[in-house]
Specification:
The chain is about 40% helix and about 25% strand. The protein is α+β, with helices and mostly antiparallel strands and about 500 residues long. A 6-stranded antiparallel sheet has the order 3-2-1-6-5-4, with helices on both faces. Strands 8-7-11-10-9 form a 5-stranded antiparallel sheet, with helices on both faces. The protein has a 5-stranded mixed sheet with strand order 13-15-16-18-17, covered by helices on one side. Helix 3 crosses helix 6 (about 155-175).
Amino acid sequence: MAGLEELARRSTALDDAAVDHCLQLVSGWSLLSDLSFSDLLLYAPVDASATSFVVLGHMRSVTGSTVHVADPVGSVVAADSRPQLRLAYLDGERTDGLVPWAPAHGPSRDDPTVEEDIGGIGARITVDYIPVRRDDAVIAVLARESDPQLLRHPNPVERRYRDLWERFAAMVAAGAFPLERSERVGELREPRVGDGVVVLDREQRIEYTSPNATSALHRIGVRANVVGRTLGELGTAEHAVRRAFASRHSTLEELEHGTTAVIARCHPLVEDGRVSGAVLLLRDISELRSRDKLLLSKDATIREIHHRVKNNLQTIQSLLRLQSRRLETAEAKSAIEQSARRIGSIAIVHETLAVDTADVVDFDAVAGRVVRMVEEGLGSTERPVRVEIVGTLGELGGDVAMPLAVVLTELVQNAIDHSVGAGDVTVSLRQAGKDLEMRVVDGGTGVPEGFALDRDAGLGLTIVRTFVVHDLGGSISIGRAEPSPPYGTAVEVRVPRQGPNLPVG
């Protein structure tokens, strides 16, 4: 099913501003639906003549039964079958009436379950039509649709909620709802009527608290008689209320008391251009915050582990370098220094992972540090070394970045050892679809004729082959970079981009 914006642009003549207004309305109408104990549908005219209307949105309440078991969004209703709907749109006045339950608003009448739910053949539903006004122009109609046979026994809670519905409906008809701006709740679910309702008057004093709201207030330490007092006097949620009254925006505040956390959403009530009160929704999010704290503790532990591993690896690296200085044999000295650089490349990845708990690293930054480490270890004034990196691999999971860093270390070491001059080693990085490519080219004499990786590889290339083929499931090829002397050597590594912690890009 198409989204509201796509459906509106495809099936109506609403302009961009009107579509945006409709989007804002449906983003906050769960409150209205819950207060009305009914389904809410948003109707927009298909054309300027308003001979038919399309359903742009549908919201079911959590406080009452639905009359639309199936999704009615996208259904088209002829104005002849809904004269009050067209009247509300053209005259801009609120209307109501009984209308036949239509198949366009649900499953086929052949479904006996649905027939029983809405009263059988000839069933009718009660509809309350509210014009949706923007800048003194009616752009759509909000319909509250319910089954009149579902008799309810009015109680103080329901009476209060229906009164609030009437006030919000008047705001919709006057163009005061949706509110101009709403402070965002982030990834948390928005509080709903069932979570707890506090009603404030124009002096910001509490008129009413629902049972769940009373419980929420108790959990944050408010146990006094609250009716007739402001939240500021009670020492809670006063900032959200003050901002809502001053700005006429929907505001948000998180309240904490010990291990209890409650999120408060304040919706101002506007009449004749003035704030006449507010509705405060309270939702207990203590369990979510407790889970967040556990995750933060876990993240901190993971970062600390990476940090300690990095420190330990750097200690081992320092010991190997100290040992290499005491060796007299050039071959042994070189072997120890190469091992120190391998450990150093792994330490660089752990250091990067210690900063971010997402187990994702910027491999381009890691590659730069690895190359500088190798340059500093193998370069000298007699033999200056410069390695150029071109291209990018972007962010990689730690399970891929770790072995690739060691592979890069080995390939750059080999390239420098076989290079004949400064600045003639190039590292090319590239994302090739679902694969990662790393190509290292030097300016040396090139591999000898008949070179076979399985047979002729030294320790460095054997390590590369083990990581690339066995650990990462990739491939490695080696050959001459140029067709004529100096041939140079080109080593190309190709591995799948996807790892356990990183989706395919």
